[in-house]
């Protein structure tokens, strides 16, 4: 087993990003339940950031107490409810922060939930309890978390496009095409192919939506050699092969073919001594064509500590430069021009009013694509791809980047919304299922049925988490 990743700065940066993202998402999710409960006069007993199993960092009940570092016995005394307290008030809620930074909860009076507090349910229903409210009100309370998570994603996406705009390179503008992984090569792609369509749907950029469309398509059409339109029939398990390859090697199944164009030469190194200049584009290394960065670096690595010739394009003309020294690391001492400055980028700016519908569109598209992918989990290959906090944390950037952080947080918010609305007892979707049954038939499922369903749902979620954590251990530690 390899635990060396624990000593890297990137691991701790990703861990901090993960905890911050989950804190924001869980707080917003639970605030959705809280808001609708308060709207309909339901008593929210507790609202907690993080879990407080047998220990609480801080707890506060307005006008009554503020307590730091409470243990189990202290909590039990303070949690006794005042029968004369106005339950239809935000002051009747206990607010707190637990010590396990992987979630949070909103405890709603008169509801059978994961706490399984069945004794309270045997008492006569109180007017401020969840079970006393009309079915449509209870339905909105249960959907509150999901709605707020989707709303949060929309807010984030709208904020990103308002502040940053959208800048991307269309496939057709990436004149060198794409580089493909070994799995993609086996499926029929060739380096330099330009994706055009996936099952008849036009492909524009390497957006998550278009990447998802390619991975799940039956047929992808590409432009080959800038002249031939070629259909490629993909295997049914292509998405799993690509995901496994990406997890093993950390590389996507395709990426833009970035040409090597000099931005700056470094003092007293091979490129500067050989007279290379800003704007020079690498064409070949020692006679071997190198149309992109990967091929260029691979060829340089074959000539460490040697002087070589380079074919470069300067001012539209190809010329040869001899005596370029490659150092022991396979480098010649150049800084690269950003791809966005080489190819023609498409830039879209949004004002405040335009950013909101664009944020809604982005949130909806990502939700639809995630739902399409979700069904693949219930296959043998899909079960292997399930991951827990390790898998989620791995998608954050290794250096702190706020734009990337918010992009990923918005996407995880979509995931949290979709997962919670699944019709599994103990999740919000399970409660929604019971409420829809009640609204259609006019009667509630029995409390005994709900209790048993909750236990089954809890067992299923525990098993799913065990699978996810086991996959993470195998993927990041053992393998």
Q: What do you see in this structure?
A:
The protein is an alpha+beta fold and about 475 residues long. Among the domains are: about 170-255, Roll (Pdz3 Domain), CATH 2.30.42; about 260-340, Roll (Pdz3 Domain). It has 16 helices and 17 strands. The strands form six sheets. The protein has a four-stranded antiparallel sheet, with helices on one face. Helix 4 (about 135-165) crosses helix 11 (about 350-375) and helix 4 (about 135-165) packs across helix 15 (about 430-440). The longest helix has about 30 residues, at about 445-479. The radius of gyration is 28 Å and the shape is elongated. The N and C termini lie close together (about 10 Å). The mean pLDDT is about 85.
Short description:
This protein is α+β, with helices and mostly antiparallel strands and 479 residues long. The protein contains 16 helices and 17 strands.
Largest sheet strand order: 7-6-8-9
Helix and strand composition category: alpha+beta
Average pLDDT score: 84
Which stretches of 5+ consecutive residues score pLDDT under 50? none
Looking at the structure, the CATH topology of the domain at 171-255 is Pdz3 Domain
Number of helices: 16
CATH class call of the domain at 171-255: Mainly Beta
- C-alpha-based Rg, rounded: 28 Å
Q: Label the overall shape.
A: elongated
Could you estimate the helical fraction of the residues in percent? 40-55%
- Major sheet: 4 strands, antiparallel
The N- to C-terminal Cα distance equals 8 Å
Number of strands: 17
How much of the sequence lies in strands comes to 15-25%
The CATH architecture of the domain at 171-255 can be named as Roll
